Q: What sequence folds into this?
DNA sequence: CGTTTCTTTGAGGATATTCAATTTATGTGG
DNA sequence: CCACATAAATTGAATATCCTCAAAGAAACG
């Protein structure tokens, strides 16, 4: 991948918004390419934060495991999202593990390189605050959700969120274009795979979603799902 | 309050770490003082973020209410904590409401003033990332907690956290030095005041805590509480 | 085509909520 | 300072929600 293509990629990355083309090129040049394949991890929770990443292509799931081994999915990420950069700046170990849901490519910068770039291009720091602020809001919303809503509502809200972030319109609804197991959904909604399975089975019967193991999940009646998410 | 005192105050504020004394004085001079009394709100969720704040003295509880009126306590704040600054920088309405738990004083800066200061003193932006990054971590931890632990464990963990943040050693344990109703604790731990009441009653009988309505809560056996939080 | 992984479904049970009533504190106006 | 009104806390009983345990079925994989 040449510098021109990298620069093009970085143009749509929130973290580098407001940088001139030539500045972006400098940032692009300082990057290292890191391809990844499905089920691979970019790094592991607890590792030293030596590098920060930005996703080029491919989807990634961010996992956080408890000392007892229970997993919670913190968020899903795709092209343009930054990964691990806050840990780099705070000089703390990575607090979570990014797992690739499909093959892809990330760009990375060493901690030192990153510091240089931020120093040279002040907008980066402001953009970083914006991005991290967005994550705070997202987490606050999820916390509120887990604290005040029932499982069915949370599953509905989660599916709608995934659809909003990554959904593709298909003939009979909105498709969530990556593998999504019952276990995954359970870890996103703070419940068990059993409850997710029961819920999706019911929704399948009612024609609200279509969810078989082989194919991607399709939301057939988003409006109904929104109703469930809101009132129950 | 004169500029000297304000400057002194700002010396211990994470957001302004690394600034020279004269820079701090400039920041202090640009601030407006905003006293507040118990139960007052600095602003309300949904308000336009015209000003950012830093707590001088006094404790504040940050609330977020759902459209249905259910409240979730996002965090407690005290001297040196910043409030609403991310919303100011992101140009979005305040996402939560800070309620004073006791009389106190905040310093505030207008959005425009803040932008100036960040421009003039680059360390502020980096510090902000650090602070906001810390909040992300805190929220991730709480999300994990709600997702994987039972109510009793969460209440125990919450009390220990409050003790760590604000606790005072007293003769027979650690005191949490502000009013803390069952309802408050319920909103912090994603449960109901009834369950909190039952739990504290039980702990009181076992001599783990001392919790009467008039006086502040005292943790008498922190170690036991830690056991409950960890294993249950 | 056997093995592994994921999913479904049932039955039983634990945890925590809801509903309801009472007790205890706090605050207020006489 | 007391009597009343208000707010907070306690506790019991009934119930809902969701989890755990268990087993079987279906799909993917080599």
A:
């Amino acid at each position: 991948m040449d510098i021109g293509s990298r620069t093009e990629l970085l143009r749509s990355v929130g973290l580098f918004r407001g940088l001139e083309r030539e500045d972006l090129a400098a940032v692009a040049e300082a990057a290292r390419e890191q391809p990844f394949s499905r089920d691979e991890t970019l790094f592991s929770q607890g590792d030293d934060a030596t590098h920060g990443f930005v996703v080029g292509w491919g989807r990634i799931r961010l996992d956080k495991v408890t000392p007892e081994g229970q997993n919670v999915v913190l968020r899903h990420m795709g092209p343009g999202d930054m990964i691990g950069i806050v840990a780099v700046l705070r000089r703390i170990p990575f607090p979570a593990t990014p797992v690739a849901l499909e093959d892809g490519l990330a760009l990375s910068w060493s901690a030192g390189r990153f510091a240089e770039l931020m120093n040279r291009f002040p907008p980066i720091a402001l953009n970083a605050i914006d991005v991290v602020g967005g994550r705070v809001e997202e987490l606050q919303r999820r916390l509120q959700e887990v604290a005040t809503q029932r499982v069915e509502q949370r599953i509905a809200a989660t599916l709608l969120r995934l659809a909003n972030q990554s959904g593709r319109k298909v003939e009979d609804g909105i498709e969530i274009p990556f593998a999504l197991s019952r276990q995954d959904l359970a870890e996103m909604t703070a419940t068990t795979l059993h409850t997710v399975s029961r819920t999706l089975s019911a929704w399948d019967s009612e024609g609200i979603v279509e969810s078989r193991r082989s194919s991607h999940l399709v939301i057939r009646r988003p409006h109904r799902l929104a109703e469930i998410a809101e009132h129950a």
